[in-house]
Amino acid sequence: MCLAAYCTLLGFIMETRAQKPEEEQLGIGEEAESKRVLVTFAIWLAITILIGGLLDLFFGGIPLTFTVPLLGVAGSVSLILYYAAVLAVAIYIGVVGLKELVVERRFSVEFLMAVAGLGALFLDARFEAATVLFLYCIAEYFEGYLQDRAKRTVEKISKVIPEKARLLKSDGTEKSVNVTQVETGAVILVKPGERIPLDGNVVEGFSHVDQALVTGESVPVPKRVNEPVFAGTMNTSGVLRIKVTKKSTETLVSRIVVLVIESQKHKASIERLVDRFARYYVPAVLALAVFTAGVLPSVLGGGFETWFYRSLILIVVSCPSAFIISVPATIFVAITIAAKRGVVIKGGIFIEKLARVRHVIFDKTGTLTLGRQTVHEIRRPDTSKAEDAALTYAAALDQFSNHPVAQAIVRKAIERGIDLSKIKVTDVLEVPGKGIVGLVDGKHVAVGNLGLMRELGCDCTEAFEVTAGDAHTAICVSVGKTGLAAVCVVDQVREDALNAIRSLKKANIKTTMLTGDRTEIANEIAHTLGIDNFEAELFPEDKLKYVEDLKGKNGLVAMVGDGVNDAPALAASDVGIAMGAKGVDVALESADVVLVKDELAQIPYLIKLSQKTMVIAKQNIAASLIMKLVLGALGLMGLTPLWFTVASGDDGVTMLLLLNTLRLERIK
Questions:
Q1: Is the dihedral of CA 376, 379, 384, 385 positive or negative?
Q2: Dihedral, CA atoms, 422, 424, 430, 436, nearest 10 degrees?
Q3: Set 199, 363, 491, 650: catalytic member
Q4: Which of 289, 300, 368, 416 has a 20 to 30 Å separation from 95 between CA atoms?
């Protein structure tokens, strides 16, 4: 009855595999096929252990009338079951391991486990041989599952990108096409409740877009005309017409996925150390196993079978998978966790470096501040004259300039309801770096700095005096060559900058701000944010020199910039962190770490994540080596069975270490 059940179950397993549709079989990758084989073998071995054990316990194995050649063991039904399963599995994984030994010249876990299984079978330790291989198959499957979990976290991002796009033709009609057929410059339509298929800019419509998939933002972001949208994000409310700026293979999401997957190539030094250690550790323990089986019987006495059995334990102990797998898995899990929060880390080496960062340098404009000027106030020497009059003259000229300060003045005028279309403006001349001049309703008007006013012979002494000592950028508005007012413009500080600086200081990490702006402005921002040091009125080469001088002093240095203007300093630092929202293409190429969402609060989190990652990696190495040394010693003394060594010393420890790695997800 037991034998019939065994045959039935085994037949069901093989039949289930054989019944896979031909298309599915062709579409299954090598990795998926390997997993299915492992599951099949695990079930086969489990059934063998169960039925073989019952037959041995209650029926003496059901003896048969023959003796097994070479071994001289009496044949039985249970023996046939054990030998069929163990030989099939051991030979299969042995061939895999032998290929790796020949091609890569290293002893793989498959080769070592096959030797252990066949060796146990040679000693007629059938139960142990089957148990060793069963534990191997189960552990390998779950190791793959835990490792793939991190990889799937990133890869599933690309799977939510729609395969079709609504392409708007020149006659206004829609056509559903594959996203791979959409060229840059084409216009697509995205309705509410649909995911955006390609990167682009909104050309018509308004909606709130859920960007959590790309940037980690929990609240949908309003999207207006001329604002960028990303493939894979969800359009939640209005209809959007989007001009495509990237092909399907060049979208932000697809590039992030590729970068995170490829990050495994940039190994941390601790990973390389483990690889080098394994090259010497495995041959050394295998040599000890050969010495144990070949020499110790004659030196210490005892039968060959006893010492051969103990040498099999050493072979199992020599499997390096516990510390070889757990360390890169730990680092890769950290990289994928960061990617889910909208941060791209380009390799394990940068995780290791971030853990050792003791000084973070920030660029000011576009990093600690938004890089978007706003009018703080308008000061007039003669307060009897209307503030809006000065703003009207200034905005009338500045509407013809693209300078950030000019745009800030125009925005302020629009906010106050000033209609610039009714004002006659002629003879406009912009002086780069100084200001703009022209005729406004027939009056000579100049808007700019003190240098421009002096060149034009405008009397703005009183206008600039009322702003003396301020930590603002002051722009004089001159009408009829007389200073009417000074417009004070400031750069807005990012909302999360203060919390980021506080968190870094709590972690005993020093902060410095570098800027080309005036000392008074830099001092105010540094004081507001609580930054330890600042350097003002710097050129790009000055920032580069500052970073180079600071490197090597009291830990590693991280530089945070916009990824474009700060490229030299970012490259010179130990870890270059780029704000990616505005220049994401450049940032993805040049920086070591990219903050896709421009969220400064991610920096202290990344340092904390990296530090915890390295702690767990070192814990995993220490735990695996200690366990292997202890089990190796106990095995040599004959105090542990082979199956227990596999369960606790290799596969068991590997699974526990990988589970330990998942603690990284708890970090806030």
A1: negative
A2: -80
A3: 363
A4: 289
